[in-house]
Amino acid sequence: MPVGMEEQARAFYSGLLGMTEIDKPYELKKRGGCWFSSGAVQIHLGIEPDFRSARKAHPALRCRDYDELIARLKKAGVETKDDQSIPGVQRCHIFDPFGNRIELIHA
Question: 98: which of 1, 5, 53, 64 is 20 to 30 A away, CA to CA?
Answer without folding.
Answer: 64
